[in-house]
Amino acid sequence: METNTEPQLPYMPGLAGVPAAESKVCDIDGQKGILFYRGYPIEELAEKSTFEETSYMLLYGQLPTKEQLDGFTHELVHHRRLKYKLIDLMKTLPETGHPMDALAAAVGALGMFYPHINVMDAAQRHGACVRLIAKLPTIVAAFHRMRRGDRDVLPNDKLNHAANFLYMLNEQEPDPFHAKILDTCLVLHAEHSMNASTFSARVTGSSLADSYAVVASAVGTLSGPLHGGANEDVLDMLQEIGTVENVIPWLDKAQAAKRKIPGFGHREYKVKDPRAKILQRLAEQLFARYGSTPLYDIAVKLESVMEERVGSKGIYPNVDFYSGLVYQKLGIPMDLFTPVFAIARVSGWLAHWMEQLENNRIFRPSQVYVGAPPRSYTSIDRR
Ligand code: ACO
């Protein structure tokens, strides 16, 4: 039986409404649908910032000067490449495996190449942050190419973070319009307060594990269908629905079966997620230029029927609802949607990791024991 001197608080399933940290990184007003990274509204960042600049701001609390941004960008470019041994290791992974699992494995292994980091040393922490932000896109693109039997593509130092990722996937410089849209998507996904993967990152960081273990555990948490994995499930669902006419019959059946509809609902937001609004506009910009997809009409119809049926319960589109439609138009394969989320969210995870270490206490919540009362061991011949 555990003895604990701390006061016993009521059990809250999923820790709903339980503050797990004091944080300066991100703030959400879920009733109004407002999101700020370090006080900056997401709409302004999506319009005016870049992923590199947003990452710096998340890590260090304020927008960088030109000199700081140039230095940070240079560091990111410099650290994009992977060690050959890591590439060899990734080649042993099954090609049919999910890229999120490959990412978790590769990030975990990355720590073996940069061991003994002193997590309390600011310069070493910075180095680890730069490496992780810089290398995640290279890992995702490399795994995608090797599973198809394509040759490795080295990062292109002339391209920014988003454009270089598209370049590494396709071995072709992307359309700047595509690169700009992806850059905005990365800004939109870079941070979101105490979500499940960020909580994982903070829990792992609280044991003073290194940043690679922190990010590997966060990647694992992000992969689930209730979290980042939903962006892939949304496209599966839209394809399964197939036609606008089938939205209502499909939803009737899904609701009768008490199915959760991917891309809808959020612990914090009780209105449409502000990121979903921006992603929908990005999708529309892409469709205006390159032609729409029938899946978009299905998505819009599904959103309107869901609003009629469950809007009063506060269930609206979340960030994952429109992102897949954008990524699909950018030519990104479906099973890379969640890895793209990770490429962006790594900046938020690391900002929280550093914040956790500033005032660390290991996470060790209590529990409510509901198991068997104390009893004696019965030998096997008497059971
Ligand atoms: N479809 C249908 N009903 C839903 C949905 C949904 N997507 N989401 C919530 N509800 C209903 C629940 O059935 C429940 O109804 P009830 O009170 O009548 O039982 C009520 O809304 C509350 O739902 P919970 O699951 O308790 O809410 P919780 O905060 O625990 O979960 C979550 C939030 C996991 C996001 C949930 O809404 C969900 O499963 N959504 C679908 C998966 C998804 O899109 N995940 C991505 C979220 S964004 C992100 O992580 C990046």
UniProtKB/TrEMBL annotation:
Cellular compartments per GO CC: cytosol
GO molecular function: citrate synthase activity
Family matches, as InterPro entries: 2-MeCitrate/Citrate_synth_II, Citrate_synth-like_lrg_a-sub, Citrate_synth-like_sm_a-sub, Citrate_synthase, Citrate_synthase_bac-typ, Citrate_synthase_sf
Superkingdom of the source species: Bacteria
Native organism: Vulgatibacter incomptus
GO BP term, pick one: carbohydrate metabolic process
Protein name: Citrate synthase
Family: Belongs to the citrate synthase family.
Catalytic reaction(s) noted: oxaloacetate + acetyl-CoA + H2O = citrate + CoA + H(+)
